[in-house]
Amino acid sequence: MPVANIQVSETPLVLYALRRADDALILGHRLSEWCGHAPMMEEDMALSNIALDLIGQARELYTYAAKAEGNDNDEDKLAYLRDVRQYRNLLLVEQPNGDFAQTLVRQFFYSAFADLYWRAMMTSRDTTLAAIAAKSEKESAYHLRHASEWIIRLGDGTEESHARAQAAIDHLWAFTGEMFAVDDGERALIHAGIAVDPGVLRGRWLKMLSDVVSEATLELPQNDWMQQGGRVGRHSEHLGHLLSELQSMQRTFPGLAW
Amino acid sequence: MVTVLERDSELRQRAWDAAASVVDPEIPVLSIADLGVLRDVVLDGDHVEVAITPTYSGCPAMNMIALEIEVALERAGFRGSKVRTVLSPAWTTDWMSDEGRQKLRAYGIAPPQASNSRRALFGEQAVACPQCGSDNTELLSEFGSTSCKALWRCKACREPFDYFKCH
Predict the structure, then answer these.
(1) Which of A30, A42, A257, B131 sees the fewest Cβ atoms within 10 Å?
(2) Mapping DSSP to helix (H, G, I), strand (E, B) and coil, where does residue B139 land?
(3) Quick check: ipTM above 0.85?
């Protein structure tokens, strides 16, 4: 018997928390796919550790979203019982792992953004969001450093690693614009001092990227055409496949608990 | 004669001691008091509410710690105690007690340094080897066997070791 999707009353605040939670969960799940497959043991542990941090952040944010919504939902239902079109994550984080360079470039783009974002959210007027941000900021600093060091190593490494890193940058660049997009509901939360205005972070984000990328002897694309849709549930084909794995236990054995 | 106030303060101390006896399941030489994870113990009548703060967002040890606190309080005679997780202020390794740091080193894990070294690119901090004490060490991986540790190697005695990273 199929398990019905839950309904979520997406007030601007619920949606705001869900978007951040979905980013963290989906990227965390992607990274967990490397567990047992990374090119070396240290990286196997690093990517799994980062996945764990992200899934932990997602749990806090889902719990917050469920409380803000005030219905019968909880962190598990939000993660396991929404279908693709109900997910609100960035297209960037659902992109497949590809090769090691593609995973690390995706991580680098996201972590540079998340690090600035959490630091800005620490001053949110919403004390729970500020607390989640203060926790996450400590973790994202490590994630960013890890990814940055790899971008430099890959870019300034061999001809092969350089070419792969550059190809990953060129491929993933079009998914970065969505990080800075804001809709009306989120705009109102920004004015209320609850949400972060990502627009003001863009300059610093670009500077962080340029510094690392140029040290890595790589280049950022000039192309500014950006792909969008994740924030309103229009996803790439990849997310459905990811969710089918992530949700398979709850869909097969409804209400299953450890 | 024992006043109510004295009785409550003695009870609270007993509850605190019971909760503080719980150790980190990953690093059993450290108690949750040494770690700074134990934030508060509140007595409401005979019921106890314990506040703990998570180390890392995804740390799987937190569920285990919460469960063990309830068991420890039950053993100390407190019925139906509750464990509450507080997020703010965010946990930092700066809260780790000096005693905790010494226990860590004796256990073979280099204790955390001041937390402002997190943001330097290519970790430039010097971490002393917990085995031989040499500063001639190198970082192998920023992410180790648990969320809170990094993997280092001593170039003097050639031993690999865990470093409890600052947070």
Answers:
(1) A257
(2) strand
(3) no
